[in-house]
Specification:
The chain is mainly beta.
Length: 344
């Protein structure tokens, strides 16, 4: 690992021959102006870095991104743009090094109860394959394009209960061009989702229902998946504790007509310890039944701790200036009164 040479205090743990130390860094710096926000994001995860959480599933990568966000038409339309580079093989231990140019755009519209969103991203990957020290290298270019659209509508009934309807779709294509584009491997993924949510205002119970369809094509292979699910959730003790449970069922079918199914049940419990500090526990059960394979069951659990904070010194400066501006008129009036008294 990259950071094995650093020292760790002995009271934390006793090192052994197989001990490895790896680091992960995710930092972001934004400048917030009156009409726009611009910033940069840096992420670096060492090779071999492992975690039980969901933040760093991937490792051995370096990201550097720039982004800008701004609103138009009295903030009815919001635009977000980003671009940057991503690379791997940080320790130079692999025979290949991949460099990617990434850019994306997102446009959102929101007015009253209706909202819509349109997004597009294009990731170009330059992969260098080292076949043999005595041979020339082989270069490949992989292009991933993704576009999506979503619509959201909400309404409130007479009892202040909230109904939310969401419809979304996404199209993703992946292709590589090594020597002949006609012989390149390509895939296409299509997804469509419908979600309905009902929130009871008095008791804070939330009920959800969803329908899902996706289709994945890779050369001569095609897999279609459709299904739906139900969910329930509730917050307790002034939102300090939240509970949720989900049950989903999906059926699968390939190009040959072979079928299968998945039954997924999940339970989640979260607790807000203090401002910025929270814990969560997730437990899931997956039952799979495919043609030609004996049915099997998988069980997984996850426990996480999250702490977040923000430092905004410019806000304090603005607040101080505003307070100074509010006090100044009173000071001017008082000084003018004193001057008048002296003249008399």
């Amino acid at each position: 690992a990259l950071s094995n040479s650093s020292a760790v205090p002995g009271f934390l743990f006793s090192e052994r021959v197989t001990t490895e130390r790896n680091t992960a860094l995710d930092a972001r710096l934004d400048y917030e102006a009156e009409k726009y926000t611009a910033g940069i994001q840096l992420r670096r995860i060492d090779p071999g870095y492992r975690t039980f959480g969901a933040y760093f599933f991937a490792n051995d990568l370096f990201d550097l991104l720039g982004n800008v966000r701004f609103g138009m038409f009295k903030d009815l339309v919001n635009v977000q743009l980003s671009a940057g580079v991503q690379s791997n093989n940080l320790a130079l231990l692999n025979p290949t090094t991949t460099t990617r140019f990434i850019y994306s755009g997102d446009i959102g519209y929101s007015k009253d109860r209706f909202g819509a969103n349109l997004n597009y991203s294009n990731n170009t990957t330059d992969v260098g394959y080292i076949l043999n020290e005595e041979l020339d290298s082989l270069n490949a270019v992989i292009v991933t394009q993704s576009s999506g659209v979503s619509f959201n509508y909400s309404l409130t009934d007479g009892g202040s209960n909230q109904h939310v309807f969401n419809l979304s779709g996404n199209l993703q294509t992946v292709g590589d061009d090594i020597e002949n584009p006609l012989e390149s491997t390509s895939s296409q993924l299509i997804t469509a989702n419908f979600l309905y949510s009902y929130l009871i205002a008095d008791s804070k119970w939330r009920f959800t229902a969803k329908l899902l369809f996706n289709q994945n094509e890779v050369q001569q292979m095609r897999i279609s998946r459709s299904g739906g699910g139900l969910g329930v959730g509730k917050s307790f003790f002034n939102n300090k504790v939240n509970f949720g449970a989900d049950l989903d069922f999906f059926s699968n079918q390939n190009q040959n007509g072979d079928t299968g199914s998945n039954l997924n049940a999940g339970l989640r419990i979260g607790y807000r310890v203090s401002k910025g500090l929270s814990t969560n526990f997730r437990y899931g059960l997956l039952r799979t039944n495919n043609a030609g394979i004996n049915p099997y069951t998988e069980v997984n659990g996850n426990f996480g701790i999250q702490y977040s904070f923000s430092v905004r010194p410019l806000d304090k400066l603005k607040k101080a200036k505003q307070q100074a501006g509010e006090d100044r008129p009173a000071q001017v009036i008082e000084e003018s009164k004193k001057k008048k008294k002296k003249k008399k």
